[in-house]
Fold this protein.
Amino acid sequence: MGKRGLQYFTLSEIEPRVWFMLTGCNFCCKGCFRPARDEEGIPLTAEETLERMEKACLNYYAKVPSEAMITGGEPTLDKAYLLRLLNGLREKGFEKIVLMTNGYALGMDNDYVRELEESGLTEAHVDLKGFSEDIHRWYTGKSNKPVLSAIEKLNDSGIELLVQTIYMPGIVDEAEIAEIAKFLASLNRDIKYRINPFAHIFAYEKVARRPTLEEMERAYEVASKYLPNAIISRSCYREYPTPPPQKTWITVYPNLKVQRREMKDQAEERLSWLSRIRPRESVVGDWKKEEWDFKLRHSLVGISEAKKYVAKEERGSGSGPVKVKFPRVLHGLTRTREMELDFDGSTTIGEVLERLVEEYGEEFREKIMDGSEIRRSFNVYLNGANIKNVQDIKTEVHGNDEIIILSWVSGG
Ligand code: SF4
């Protein structure tokens, strides 16, 4: 019976959700940032994997979650294993099952996509590394024809599809993104497409630098001409300051040992992997520089998770309007990046949001609110402080205050 190496499971602290980190890959991407591609992991059958996943989830959540993300490495290498895993997840009541794949194996086997759907897969995230055959071969070691074919098959299936590309200046840049967007639009203009920036410090080989804000924005503009659902990722610059919603991960190893891992643990895992091909000092140096860069970008826009809310008594109350800045994802509705609202005396974040609903309609509410709460995909800052650390939508707002709404993703 086929076995796949399992590096670990990750459990979300936000809501019950489990990631399967399977090891090994059929690509050799030069810019790979996933140690799982080279790790051996513990070889397990699909049934053994499911059994350990169930124990890990019962121990931590006291129940089996309904969402699973299957990633790696490359999860599609052993079809029989993957189909058994999916069927097992479905039998255990999982409703949302996402596969993160390079797509190659799905394009090489005419039945694979149909069998995935029949086995319960609900969503696929396919990395399309490049549209030009020569770029794709150079970067991954393999042809992109099967990947393009996999995207076509997934688009024709009932599986929800997201395609992603990493912007690498001078390699996969605007011209290449335009070709990808045209190809995707020729299949279906509504395909979701995400452009992520190349992060050279995490990459196995530093084949490119990190793209600039302007480059990412231009790529977004080009892609969105063809694909209304194009976005640039949250790790990009426009909304880079949006802090991740969680700072730790619950990692459960195949022997069921549990470790709460922080960013530094994840960094250490990557550093030791990268140190195999680069001197460790240079890798650590790059990492420190990036951390500094991240903090600098936060401070440039004046927000910080650590920033303390300053009460009205300490800062006084201004008489000017309240300024509201919108994330790009809302610009289609607001038609502006920022606006000002006048209030008689003090108000609250909740009332400001109501005024914005009056201004931009119910669609604004649907986008940003989930019932009476702000959606998880948005963060709202008042004078630089996250309102989640104050009184959420009941946080008081006064004249001259500045509210910044940020989303994890930008774009249309
Ligand atoms: S497909 Fe993913 S895991 Fe495999 S080599 Fe490329 S980036 Fe790494």
The longest helix spans residues 280-300. Confidence is low (pLDDT under 50) at residues 234-245.
